[in-house]
Amino acid sequence: MIPRLARAFGALGLLTAAAVGSLEGWFDGERDRDRLPSSLTEASGLALDDQGRLWVHDDERGIIARLEDGSGDIAERRVLGPDPVTGDFEGLAWDGRRFHLVTSTGTLVSFEPGSDESVHRWSARRTDADPLCEVEGLATAPDGRGLVMACKTVYDDRWRGHLVILDVALPDDDDDLDRPPLPVRPRLVVAPSTLEAAGLDDDLSPSGLTRSPDGRGWWVVAAREGVLIHLSDDGAVVDHAELPSGHPQAEGIALEGSHVLTLVDEGGNGRARITRYTRPDTTPP
Predict the structure, then answer these.
(1) Which 3 state secondary structure label does DSSP give 77?
(2) Which residues pair with residue 276 across a beta bridge?
(3) Per residue in 114-129, is it b (16+ CB within 10 Å) or e — as a string?
(4) CA distance linking residue 44 with residue 249, whole number of Å
(5) 283 is a domain residue
(6) Parent domain of 179
(7) How many helices (H) and strands (E) does the chain have?
(8) pLDDT tens for the 285 residues of the chain, in order
(9) Alpha-carbon distance 74 to 148, whole Å?
(10) What is the distance between the alpha carbons of residues 148 and 187, in angstroms, rounded to a whole number?
(11) Which of 198, 148, 188 has its CA nearest to residue 170?
């Protein structure tokens, strides 16, 4: 379990900006790993709600689950229906009122979680991400007025081989698939030469992203390459680190405060796992 004391430090902001902004040391502290229930074998993205509670989504069905604090146990679920909602879901984000799931083709499925397990009011809206790229990873924009999507594989000739992160507006509550796709625009386009100069593969495949804990830039996890990357808001590679052993397919990333880094690995032929890393240094301001 993650120590309550470490959580308290994070809540009080007792980590320096230099410490939380750098990837150095994040994997040197306490590691807490749990297997998720068999019903979450296809676990993919992560998101935190306004109360700091961690939610995970299923990769193939419109289902999200809230995990018990500091464990891999399911506290509650939300299931989209009444008929099963299926898709290649690759990211989850919370905007303060609604959850948003994104498919690999950039379609957004949005809903208020309510208090019942069954959710019968939800909307779906395509975006112009398809056919630009295959989407894998979703987050809320810093101003809370839009969403940010990571491109796993880029199809567009202008950006082929680049690391691309897209902006898209929040969909409306009454959206449907018959409406025109929501426009997307590039937030970050990182050239292969920039990645290579930083010592990274020049054709990275992001699998998840979240805002940096110091509020400057983005942390991007790339499962295939087994790396975590800190990008600045202007697309510079600030830092990067290899993922420790035991992450065969890191699909989702979340930061619980400024002190706990959480990764979820899809199960594949086994059970999915969630891993929390506690930053070891808690330096008073």
Answers:
(1) strand
(2) 32, 262
(3) eeeeebeebbbbbbeb
(4) 9
(5) no
(6) 4-278
(7) 4, 21
(8) 333 323 333 333 333 444 556 788 889 888 999 999 998 988 999 999 999 999 999 999 999 999 999 899 999 999 999 999 999 999 999 999 999 999 999 999 999 999 999 999 999 999 999 999 999 999 999 999 999 999 999 999 999 999 999 999 999 999 999 999 999 999 999 999 999 999 999 889 999 999 998 899 999 999 999 999 999 999 999 999 999 999 999 999 999 877 899 999 998 778 899 999 998 765 433
(9) 27
(10) 8
(11) 148
- Identify the sign of the CA torsion 196, 200, 203, 208: negative
In a domain, 252, yes or no: yes
Look at residue 25 and give its three-state secondary structure.
coil
Would you say residue 160 lies in a domain? yes
Q: Which DSSP symbol is given to 182? A: B
Q: Helix, strand or coil for residue 61?
A: strand
* Tally of domains within the chain: 1
At 231, the amino acid letter reads: L
The pTM (predicted TM-score) of the whole model is 0.90
CATH of the domain at 15: 2.120.10
Report d(CA 150, CA 90) in Å as an integer: 10
